[in-house]
């Protein structure tokens, strides 16, 4: 048995040796060529390029368009500015776009008592102060976090006015008015500490200030709280409306206070000391959200959330004209100083200039992609500043 096993192993070994020998004897295909091929390259001369100069005509400089804005991170004059010309009904055809930049959605514009500063409030809780001559940013106050744009300013979260030359009154929350001393602030200030606060137990929709008479009117749902902010006197409650109040505004001289009801459609007339100037009138309209009073206290303009404007005669206390001015709500109105022109902005993306008192349309700035949420005339009325819900800010005026 052992011999057979040995014979089997020997035969198996012999067979393997034969197989290996046959593999080595076979022809293998070389993996690489046995010789390196020679590549010859004969360069061909290329012609020398010829540069031909063809004279062209003198380029034409296209004027800056007045409708397409050029954006800058900070305010910047795009054109020279004629500072001694005021915006009036007879020169609107010469109105030009002078400056534009991008900000947060704009809520409000206001100016300092001396006219040297223009303030801008955004829905993002920022207050900017610009030099009205150079547009240089003098101060930036950040009040809180960015907030959404809801398309209504009946209850604006941030409202600001100068209470005197060096102090701002700001409504930051729904319950308090904070007074901030500007002389103690750096150029950029985050959530500055108030030197004084006036707080209520009910939410404040918005407010207005008369620097001349040191009066403040707080719009609190169905009533107005009026007080002298230069003293510690308690506010006087004025109940003129049966529903919510859409707007309350002091006259330019500070002697009168006019309120317009959002729910009841009535317009009330009070003296700045709180006494009744005239009983309220029923206008037949509702949804008032904006007011403006002529400088001579002769006319009141009221704007509605449906785009209507009503003109009220302050001598006869009746509506003398009413028209559909816009296709959407009117958040801002302003009379010119001479009382011959009324300006309105709307959520329909336009700013319009109207002749007073007949309501004839004089000029329209159209084509804005979002609501023109605020505007204001410069204190000298030599320029107009507007802001949209997209954060586009523009300044319009006249070229030299």
Provide a descriptive summary of the structure in words:
The protein has one domain: Methylamine Dehydrogenase, Chain H. 6% of the residues lie in helices and 40% in strands. It contains one helix and 29 strands. The strands form seven sheets. The protein has a five-stranded mixed β-sheet with strand order 2-3-4-5-9, with no helix packed on it. Strands 1-29-28-27 form a four-stranded antiparallel β-sheet, with no helix packed on it. The longest helix has 24 residues, at 2-25. The radius of gyration is 38 Å and the shape is globular.
SSE inventory with pairings:
Layout: H1 2-25, E1 96-102, E2 106-111, E3 117-122, E4 126-131, E5 137-142, E6 159-164, E7 167-171, E8 176-181, E9 188-190, E10 196-199, E11 206-210, E12 215-220, E13 223-228, E14 236-238, E15 245-250, E16 256-261, E17 266-271, E18 276-282, E19 288-293, E20 299-304, E21 308-313, E22 318-324, E23 332-335, E24 341-346, E25 350-355, E26 361-365, E27 374-377, E28 384-387, E29 392-397
> Based on the structure given, which CATH architecture is correct?
7 Propeller
Instruction: Characterize the overall form.
Output: globular
How many β strands by DSSP?
29
Helix content: under 10%
The CATH fourth-level homologous superfamily: YVTN repeat-like/Quinoprotein amine dehydrogenase
Number of helices: 1
Q: Indicate the CATH class.
A: Mainly Beta
Question: Radius of gyration over alpha carbons?
Answer: 38 Å
Cα end-to-end separation: 126 Å
Total of domains: 1
In N-to-C order, the SSE pattern is HEEEEEEEEEEEEEEEEEEEEEEEEEEEEE
Q: Return residue spans where pLDDT drops below 50 for at least 5 consecutive residues.
A: 1-7, 20-72, 146-155
The average pLDDT score comes to 83
- Note the main sheet: 5 strands, mixed
> Structural class of the secondary elements?
mainly beta
CATH topology: Methylamine Dehydrogenase, Chain H
Physical arrangement of strands within the biggest beta sheet: 2-3-4-5-9
Strand content: 35-45%
